[in-house]
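Onboarding guide, step 5: your first structure request.
Type a short instruction followed by the sequence, for example:

Predict the 3D structure of this protein.
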Amino acid sequence: MSASADPTQSPEWEAARLDWCSMTRTQLDQLQQTVNAATPGSLALETVYVPMHDMAGLAGVFGYSLLGKIARSLIETLRKGANPLDDKMLMIARAHLSTLSALLAKDVRGEGGPQGVAILAKLASIHA
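The system replies with structure tokens like these:
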């Protein structure tokens, strides 16, 4: 690894971030297709939970704190929901996944500022 006071500024770190983004985009696209095609009672909770758990853990490491918070919000909601996913849980998963895809496509890093707070609030409102 390159010698630097801040390892996140090294070429190796940037390469790792780009790899994570690419893999995550692909995973989100596949997961969205699966969730969008699912009918109530046909999709196991783990299908969404496992990749979102991974994203919740890794997003912040690569500077995508807002994405990590959205993924964590989804997994916390899934823990309380039906397994297999019912209509409400599918709707919640679709909203979170489309938001994550849009934010990753725009390369929104960090907390997202006031817009990030608004996004989290909007997603939280559909949980109720």
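Each response can be followed by summary notes, for example: The CA atoms of residues 5 and 98 lie 36 Å apart.
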